[in-house]
Amino acid sequence: MRWVLLILGGLMVVVGGTWLLQGVGILPGSFMTGQAFWAVVGAVVLVAGAALCSAGVRAGRRRR
């Protein structure tokens, strides 16, 4: 379960970061560029992914 949380969380961090950067206009080249909606969605997905990664790290520490 630990690896599932870490992999899923890592993917969410990457996708959320991409959406956030596109939403604020730093990463151009998409229909999402400059759209505040995608900046907010990206930030939410980024935070959720970081929480999953944190849960995965904590799950690994409890077993030892």
From TrEMBL:
Q: Which UniProt keywords apply?
A: Membrane, Transmembrane, Transmembrane helix
Task: Classify the source by domain of life.
Answer: Bacteria
Where exactly are the transmembrane stretches of this chain?
36-57
Query: Would you tell me the protein name for this molecule?
Result: Integral membrane protein
Organism encoding this protein: Rubrobacter marinus
